[in-house]
User: What shape does this take?
Amino acid sequence: MKIVIVGAGYVGLVSGICFSDFGHNVVCVEKDERKLAMLAKGEIPIYEPGLDALLAKNITAGRIKFTNDLATSMEGADAVFIAVGTPTRRGDGHADLTYVFQTAKEIADTMHSGIVVVTKSTVPVGTNREIARIISKQRPGVEFHTASNPEFLREGSAIEDFMRPDRVVIGVESAHGEEVLRRIYRPLNLRETPILATDLETAEIIKYAANAFLATKITFINEIADLCEKVGGDVQQVAKGMGMDKRIGGRFLHAGPGYGGSCFPKDTLALARTGQEVDAVQSIVETVIRANNERKLAMAGKVIAACGGSVKGKRIAILGVTFKPDTDDMRDAPSLVIIPQLRKAGAEMVLCDPQGHMESATMFPDETWADNAYDAAKNADAVVVITEWNAFRGLDLARLKAGMSEAIFVDLRNIYTYREMDAADFQYFPIGKRQRKST
Assistant: This one.
């Protein structure tokens, strides 16, 4: 089948490459000339493990190409996917649908009769019907089919999530639209991947509800972590005990400095805003948003407390600035709150991140960067783990400590244990555990 993807950002690029690996003929339409030039040479403008190799494979096979010419791309297409950005709108927290509606108009100008117009972007409930209205108004009498196909990709494991999903959700209005989408995803039949066909509104809500629920799990375990620190529990053991209950499951029960990234922050805000607009207030989600914002501020306070109540004039090594490992994404990363707060309190910082330097250098113009954790920790008073990259999980703690002025280690991801830190003679400050020495 021939598929057109409008927008070669994270979602559009991963989807386009994976669809081409399914054997489809894919054309990705992108307006950004810099990004387009990179993709034409087989270069990936984002960091996602394995995506460059998969792109090279399918370019060689002739199954994917990149262009800024939507009109030519649409010729003979079975489906066109809208995969443009929906950032948080300034002022009210709602999703900004400017690019989505602009793309709908451009599709209307270039589409042929019978095409399926699929929204891959994350959009609030009612958006697909507005897309249909826009297209119908611009091209009255031309038949087309509207569909919603939300993505559930995790940065750092997007290929695996696309190729082996828990489910595929398709919101459709016609038998033809459903048939085309089922044919597109037919390669997943071999793995018996469930395909859930719903109406448009239900598909839109599923996406937001899923992300909001996962954000709630993260926020819940973070608050339990605070309780554990006060009363002497171990949040990792609590999470393990909870996760053994099949009704709960262990995923997203890892205490840390708060959620960030391209999805959870904006999607929880958009869902809360939609609820307010239709008088169905999402009070749990609103609380999650507030608690997560407070969490990031509290983590800066935790570092300051670990340093004796003041970081003025102290040198701190920051390990990890991206919102999670295996990505260069800095959107709403906890580091964007923690580092400025420490700087405001008078700390001098040295930052280290396997992928985050290029993306975040302008975000932290006053900070120094190091190539590895050991260089970052030279003459440091404290080491703070914000992002749990594999490069930080197996450090030679004796070597790390040898270069430091003071041996303070603040572990905001619980990647080490008291036993390991006691053996290296560090003052260790994990998440969700009472400050103590192991025996």
